[in-house]
Structure formats: C-alpha cells, structure tokens
Amino acid sequence: SNGICSLNPGEERLTKTALLEINQTGEIVKTRFFNSVIRSHARMTYTKVRRILVDNDRECIERHRELVDHFKLMEELALLLWEQRKSRGNLDFDLPESEIVLDLQGMPEDIVRAERSIAHRIIEEFMIAANEAVARHLKEKEFPLLYRVHEGPDPETLQALAPFILSLGYRLPLKREKITPKEIQRLLEACRGKPEERVLNRMLLRAMKQAHYAPENIGHFGLASTCYTHFTSPIRRYPDLITQRLVKGLRG
Predict the structure, then answer these.
(1) Is residue 68 within 8 Å of residue 176, measured between CB atoms?
(2) Which residue of 107, 120, 130, 222 has the fewest CB atoms within a 10 Å radius of its CB?
(3) What is the pLDDT tens value at each position of the chain, 252 positions in all?
C-alpha cells in the first residue's frame, strides 16, 4: 500500500471507477463502471478538509484554494445522499468512538474521542453510494456476488428491551412480526440530544445482529438498503477485491 497502491500526489495510478450521475434530490439516475488512470492533486486529511469546510480556516483555504470549490461541491452532494438514505430509514447510532494515540516508539500514550466531521461524512456517503451502485449493477446482470447483508433484530430481543425503553418514556411498535429500520430511526431521532440518548443508542445497537457476507441478498437493515456489497477498499478487504474482479469479469 506504500507503493503501487498509494495515492501519492502527482503520480498516476491505475484505478477502477464507479461513475454515478446524481440529480438535485440525491437520486442516482445513471451509473457507469470502467478502468481509469488518476493523478492525485494533493494529499488531504480529514482534519484539513474540516478546517476548510467547518472552521473556515483562511490559511488552509489559501493553501488549497484550487480545491476549495470541489470540497464544497462534495459536501453538498454528500448531504444530499445522506438525506436520501435518511428518508428510507438509515440507522445512525451516534456513539463516540475511541482512538488510541501512539508515541514515537509505537506505545499507547492516550485514548481520545475520535473525530467525526463533514469530511468523514463525505467519504462515507460516496463509498456507500458506490457500493450500492455496484451491487445493483451485478444483480441486474444476474451475476453472482458476495452481498454485504445485515438482518434486522430478533423480535424477542426487542420485546425484552421494551419495558426498559418504556421506562424512559419511549415506545417501539412490536405488534408486527418484524420492525422496520424507519421505526428504530424514529426512536433514535426522538431521543437525540437528551440525557438518555447515549444509553438508548447503546442498548439498541447491542440488539442488532452483526453484518456479514452472503451469496444470497437479504438486504442491509442498518443502511436500509435493499442491495449492498463491498467494492471500495480492495487493498484492505478481500471481499472488495473479489467484487472488483467480478465487475471486470462482467465487462468481459
């Protein structure tokens, strides 16, 4: 990953591109997949992009002024994609993640709360959109693939949580056999910003099943996605490499 797979500024790299045409409401209206060559313009970090988009840091903006408009457009697009996912019931458990800080010798010296800003949201939304587009494309072509699937929580598990949730003044509809992502999303939204938000988020997250890979498509409950796979990280996850090979095989 430090050699041929690294995106060093000014160096050409072979890539596989998922080109998505997205309208003003965040809907994907056209997709195309092809081999390509890219040349990175700058080595950016989440912190730098946050300083530009959130902090309005004049020094950072001036240093990367030729890229600022691109970042602003990316922010607009990411928020459109997020609203689309939110409208279908995507679950966003707002729980802090820990980050271990290492010293120069590689020994842990601190544990801090991991940063999560619009810079992270941009990457997340673009990766999810690409993953979904590839999954839909392969499925439409009736090509076998490894789906990334996530089953909904067991009704019995939610039933056991119901008294605790009710004691906090909230209610989950448990009359039907299976709950929908949108119903859990409404509960997460109802407690947002309140003292009980953290504990409710954690309890509901523990009630969820773990996502896994499968040759049969049963959808992804947490993302409220009917068709999902992993495609965007082939040097980090082997299933992504398999998916990229499938896309290449489909192209013939």
Answers:
(1) no
(2) 107
(3) 778 888 889 999 999 999 999 999 889 999 999 999 999 999 999 999 999 999 999 999 999 999 999 999 999 999 999 999 999 999 987 766 777 888 888 888 888 777 778 999 999 999 999 999 999 999 999 999 999 999 988 888 888 888 999 999 998 876 656 788 998 999 999 998 899 998 998 889 888 999 999 999 999 999 999 999 999 999 999 999 999 999 998 865
User: Residue 149 — φ and ψ, nearest 5°?
Assistant: -115, 155
Residue 111 parent element (H or E) = strand 108-113
Burial of 197 (0-12, 13-18, 19+ CB in 10 A): middle
CA distance linking residue 152 with residue 139, whole number of Å: 22
Structure tokens belonging to residue 138: 């392969």
CB within 8 A of 1, min separation 6: which ones? 235
- Separation between Cα atoms, residue 111 and residue 45, nearest integer Å: 20
Helix (H) / strand (E) element for 108: namely strand 108-113
| Residues facing residue 34 across a β-bridge | 17
CB distance 180 to 89 below 8 Å: yes
- Best CA proximity match to 229, nearest among 140, 123, 139, 142: 139
- Show the tokens assigned to 76: 């607009």
- Tokens 């430090």 -> residue: 2
The rounded distance, in Å, linking the Cα atoms of 150 and 210 is 7
Chain centroid to Cα 54, Å, comes to 20
